[in-house]
Amino acid sequence: MKPIEEIKPLLEAPKKVVITMHQKPDADAMGSSLALYHYLIQKGHLVTVISPTNFPDFLKWMPGAEGVIDFESSTDKALEALKGIELLFCLDFNALYRTKNLAPHLEAATCTKILIDHHLEPQPDFEYGVSDTSASSTAQLVYETIYKLGDEKLINLDIAQCIYAGTVTDTGSFRFASTTARVHRMVADLMDRGLRHEVIHQEIYDNFLENRLRFLGHSLLNRMEVFYEYNTAMLAIPYSDLKRFDLQTGDTEGLVNFLLSIQGIKMAALIIDRNSEVKLSFRSKGNFDVNTFARRYFDGGGHFNASGGRSTDSLERTVNRFIKAVEENETLLQ
Ligand code: 5GP
Ligand code: MN
Q1: Are residues 311 and 193 in the same domain?
Q2: Nearest-angstrom CA–CA distance, 198 and 30
Q3: Ligand 1 contacts CB of residue 15 (under 6 A)
Q4: Which numbered ligand comes closest to the C-alpha of 279?
Q5: Same domain, yes or no, for 27 and 109?
Q6: Burial of 87 (0-12, 13-18, 19+ CB in 10 A)
Q7: What confidence tens digit (pLDDT) does each residue in 5-30 have?
Q8: Model-level pTM?
Q9: Ligand 1 center from residue 212 Cα (angstroms)
Q10: Residue 333 maps to a domain
């Protein structure tokens, strides 16, 4: 993969561009994509942002979110946007399967493919890009890319808000180890450009419906299991809970982190029956590698301390497989 700054000549004349991200995008996927969008339109390109699926309501405030095409609900529109594109940017994922039903169309596109991402072990599908696992967020990499291309004067308030949103969420509000001095300097620069961080925190974190909080209480009370012998905590959510509390996309985001707040717990797992498949989220503290764990047992991946996977087994069987996997990792979890 050639370095991202080598795309500079490709951006000189207007091009038809698509930006896409992983399915069920979070604030980093959406924020980095929209930041790049606001940059590229200033450069005169014709840019469309496509999400493989819908996205949470708490991201709808983002400048440009109203123009994002949901591939699942607006497939024809998305395919039209993909027709004849010259550049494809893939943000916040590094394996095409993470775009679900959009994946075959991305694979088939004959344009120049560019990766901007911070996950481990990228697939070799990209001609240009940056894959930096030390970056706090893909949003940070978009910010740094704009600098590398010598266009920092184009970082306007729209871009600043999108970049901040991706960074604040992926760093757990600036507490994970990935929150380097470089990240704080970036945020200071964004504030110099007019960013008001408290407004964004409110949009993202204080924008839920009552039922989401009730679901949270119910889950922690009734669905949590703690395996102290393995320093592991687990939440297993049946599909009936998702229905009962009328949960929407994004309502389970962040739930897994509560488990890590228990003293001594090194790994946390959230296992949700989504009906079509069982989705798993893993988090760890310290030196337990949940990227490897997710890859080995649950067809997934991600980062060292945050990863995800999936299973086509029932919830019960998936939970049993998880417990067995934890037992196998007993020594690493001490
Ligand atoms: P989350 O638990 O928040 O869904 O995801 C945690 C991290 O793991 C994110 O960086 C996400 O991109 C990654 N991730 C989640 N699910 C999968 C998966 O099925 N495959 C891979 N490769 N990464 C995943
Ligand atoms: Mn990310």
Answers
A1: no
A2: 19
A3: no
A4: 1
A5: yes
A6: buried
A7: 999 999 999 999 999 999 999 999 99
A8: 0.95
A9: 22
A10: no
